[in-house]
Design a protein that fits this description.
181 residues; alpha+beta; 22% helix; RNA-binding
Length: 181
């Protein structure tokens, strides 16, 4: 039995959960999220809890059980607290700034890299070397953070580039100097 799938999801005050045919909508103070539910999974709202059940112990259903429960739990957390990804920008002359709804990055290229906010995502730049991406949808926040990081991933010799705050970059030693044996 799935340990994650069996856990009930608590619905905090101020969150509205609506079940339609094969779809769940969660509304809260940070926004509204909708997710399709696989036809094999059964989702019930009992009191202030959401329960996810599966019809049998087939391999596909066991996998979907925990997945469905995690997706719904992330929706509830997203509309109440929201999700956040923080990125650091390291390198001489590398800096970021927010201009209106655009993120403008100087990353050592001959041009500035500009990325626009997408709906459901907000970007903050508390200082020129930090980017904070906020939003209620965990998948959108993570995807947008990955796209920002992709513009200049950290390199292993000097550590220059855009990295997640909690990311550890494996550093490499440079070329051995002349005369070293």
């Amino acid at each position: 039995m799935s340990r994650i799938g069996r856990k009930p999801i608590n619905i905090p005050a101020g969150v509205d959960v609506k079940l339609d045919a094969g779809e769940i909508t969660v509304k809260g103070p940070k926004g509204s999220l909708t997710q399709k539910i696989h036809k094999n999974m059964t989702v019930k709202v009992e009191g202030n809890e959401i329960l996810v059940t599966r019809p049998n112990d087939e391999k596909e259903n066991r996998a979907l059980h925990g997945l469905t429960r995690s997706l719904i739990h992330n929706m509830v957390v997203g509309v109440t607290e929201g999700f956040k990804k923080e990125l650091d920008v390291n390198g001489v002359g590398y800096r970021v700034q927010k201009q209106g709804k655009d993120l403008v990055m100087n990353l050592g290229y001959s041009h500035q890299v500009v990325m626009s906010e997408i709906d459901g995502i907000t970007i903050e730049c508390p200082n020129p070397n930090k980017i904070v991406i906020l939003g209620p949808d965990k998948q959108k926040v993570g995807q947008y953070a990955a796209q920002v990081r992709e513009k200049r991933p950290p390199e292993p010799y000097k550590g220059k580039g855009i990295k997640y705050v909690d990311e550890v970059i494996r550093r490499k030693e440079g070329k051995a100097g002349k005369g070293s044996k």
